[in-house]
């Protein structure tokens, strides 16, 4: 039996590229939150977090509760993007990179 294709996230910058498969457990989720924390605090820039499979990620992590409980600000939700395909993810990365160069 073939396993169904699971959503995954990609963290991309000029020097790193990671894929977090759905079966990679807590470690990859830890790296996701570490990356978001570094973006939130300004320790890193030009890192684009794209979460592929919006329904999957919103079911896995209740982002709105983070805001509701005051753990993050509503603006922090702009630190990452949702998409449904790798092609859309690449388009977001290219767009964000170009906007970063222009600003």
Which terms summarize this structure?
single chain, 103 residues, alpha+beta, Rossmann fold, 4-stranded mixed β-sheet, 4 helices, globular, disordered N terminus
Summarize the structure.
By secondary structure, this protein is an alpha+beta fold. It has helices at 25-41, 54-60, 63-68, 86-102, and strands spanning 9-12, 17-20, 48-52, 80-83.
Descriptive account of the structure:
The chain is an alpha+beta fold and 103 residues long. The chain has a single domain (9-102), classed as 3-Layer(aba) Sandwich (Rossmann fold). It contains four helices and four strands; from the N terminus they run ββαβααβα. The chain has helices spanning 25-41, 54-60, 63-68, 86-102, and strands at residues 9-12, 17-20, 48-52, 80-83. Strands 2-1-3-4 form a four-stranded mixed sheet, with helices on both faces. β1 and β2 form a beta hairpin. The termini are far apart.
In CATH, the architecture is 3-Layer(aba) Sandwich
Question: Spans of 5+ residues with little confidence (pLDDT < 50)?
Answer: 1-17
What overall form do the CA principal axes indicate? globular
Structural class based on helices, strands and sheet pairing? alpha+beta
Helix content: 40-55%
Tally of helical runs: 4
CATH class: Alpha Beta
List the helices and strands and how they pair.
Layout: E1 9-12, E2 17-20, H1 25-41, E3 48-52, H2 54-60, H3 63-68, E4 80-83, H4 86-102
Parallel strand pairs: 3-4
Antiparallel strand pairs: 1-2, 1-3
């Amino acid at each position: 039996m073939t396993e169904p294709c699971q959503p995954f996230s990609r963290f991309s910058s000029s020097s790193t590229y990671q894929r977090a498969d759905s079966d990679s457990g807590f470690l990859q989720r830890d790296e996701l939150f570490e990356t978001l924390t570094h973006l939130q605090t300004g320790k890193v820039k030009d890192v684009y977090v794209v979460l592929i499979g919006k329904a999957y990620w919103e079911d896995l992590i209740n982002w709105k509760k983070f805001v509701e409980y005051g753990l993050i600000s509503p603006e922090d939700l702009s630190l990452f993007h949702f998409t449904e395909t790798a092609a859309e993810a690449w388009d977001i990365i290219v767009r964000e990179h170009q906007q970063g160069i222009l600003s």
